[in-house]
């Protein structure tokens, strides 16, 4: 059995990752499940940089086990790519999803519909037991709405209208399985799976 440490304790991510990378003999465990303390400072200015920081820290803290980390966020064109790497703490270090969504709506209050384009971005870094690294990147294009809509998902999902749904619903209004088919993390995981399969 190959155990891969996920550099997260987010249950949403654990489920999505384990379903996408369901290689025979692989199991995925969070830091908490493995009893590992790893909370490095994410001080890079790119998604790739922060994902690499987390993956390396988990790899080292586990004594050299395989580790997978992601860094993801929302990039809004009218805000010059913000909130970007600061997506989870856009409204402050202890901000809730609602706090972040409220701030985003305030920042975009005077922005016309045509200029509310945005994308979710996800970068994955996988470090194997031998220290080799694979990276993958995924995005999903869309627009920011004017009020939260939908009870599912998390983060900015209730405000994000993916282009692929052609204006019919937000990411928070679709079942998790459907979201995984189009999401930035789903796209990044499919790219990573293809790369990893070449080495199996």
Note the topology.
Layout lengths: L1 E5 L4 H10 L5 E5 L16 H15 L4 E11 L20 H11 L9 E11 L5 E12 L15 E3 L13 H7 L1 H14 L3
Parallel strand pairs: 1-2, 1-3
Antiparallel strand pairs: 3-4, 4-5, 5-6
Helix pairs in contact: 4-5
Summarize the structure in words.
The protein is of the alpha/beta class and 200 residues long. It has one domain: Maf protein, CATH 3.90.950. It contains 5 helices and 6 strands. Helix 1 links the parallel strand 1 and strand 2. The longest helix has 15 residues. It is globular. The two termini are 14 Å apart. The model has no long low-confidence stretch (mean pLDDT 94).
Looking at this protein, list some descriptive labels:
200 residues; alpha/beta; 5 helices; 28% helix; globular
Quick rundown:
With 200 residues, the chain is of the alpha/beta class. Helices cover 28% and strands 24% of the residues.
Number of H- or I-type helical stretches: 5
Helix content: 25-40%
Shape: globular
Instruction: Catalogue the unreliable spans.
Output: none
CA(first)-CA(last) distance = 14 Å
Query: What percent strand?
Result: 15-25%
